[in-house]
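tool_call: predict_structure(chain=1)
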Amino acid sequence: MRASDARLDPMKLGRSEQQSQLVPYKYECTRHHSLISSQFLLLCFLFFLGCSQLLLSSSFSNSTKLCPHGQALSLLQLKNSFYSTSSLKTEYWKEGSDCCSWDGVTCDSVTGHVIELDLSCSWLSGTIHSNSALFHFPHLQRLNLAFNNFSGSSLSAGFGRFSSLMISTSLTRDFQNLHLMALILCGNFPRFSENNSLIDLDLSSTNFGGELPTSMGNLKSVQTLHLYYCQFSGSIPTSLENLTQITFLHLEKNHFYGKILNVFDNLRNLILLDLSGNNFSGQIPSSIGNLTNLDELDLSDNQLEGAIPSPVNGFSSPSYVDLGYNLLNGITPSWLCTLPSFVELDLSNNKLTGHIGEFKSDSLGGGGGGD
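tool_result:
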């Protein structure tokens, strides 16, 4: 056997030689084991540190509530001021819990201030007084009290105080949405302060009546205005021409009368205009023909008379027009047949004459001439 083979065969080596050959391997194994142990200890330390941070974070979040204490008290006061047979929203409003987690309550994620309050369809009843806790939330942006029963409440005084709070607490810059739809309310319509930022106002199906105040013109940021199925009367105030941002205007099913004033020249963003079911008389104002974005127009069930005006600069893409049940007369205008986007046209129960030509619209689903 060669010497080189003897060096590789442990059986051919002496004891001292074998030990000298094993020393490097023992050193490498010890080094590798030490490295693994260090890495394991490091992983254990990182895991323990992560768990500690999670426990501290959980402990901190449990001991720190988002909702300010004063707001929770005001919400509980508001709850106790109403009677409810089965309000699922307020049933679990309990002292000692975070009011930002209560149903119907939305808080600012940073400050914790209540910014939205939705108590619609809550089976609430009672009276809203001028000193109600409802007006204790200076950062409120949206309020929805629709479909409740506040019979006998007159919100004119309460919202008068609300308007003053809007001025003193800068709520005029924050408050955006107000929904009081289908409440059993009475009294005169509230006055609106200048420079408010209401975007959505819904007071439909209430018992508000009387004439619309000129302060309606202060709603310069409003985009949707729902005042249908109320008891309003008189004429539309000229200040309505200031609502240059409005897109949806619902004034149907009231008791308005007199001429429809030319207040639409500046309302170029209007998509829907509904004045049906009133007692308007006189001619259709020519300014309606300037509404270039108008998609739906309903002037039906009034006492409008005269000829249908021709559009001046706009009125080129409506899909729904209802002028039925009026006293319109004259020849049915031929330009109605040239509008390409009609889906429904109703001219029934008027005094129009002549024939309706062939429509360019392929989707027209209704319509009719006069009697």
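agent: Residues 15-63 form the longest helix (49 residues). Proceeding to next step.
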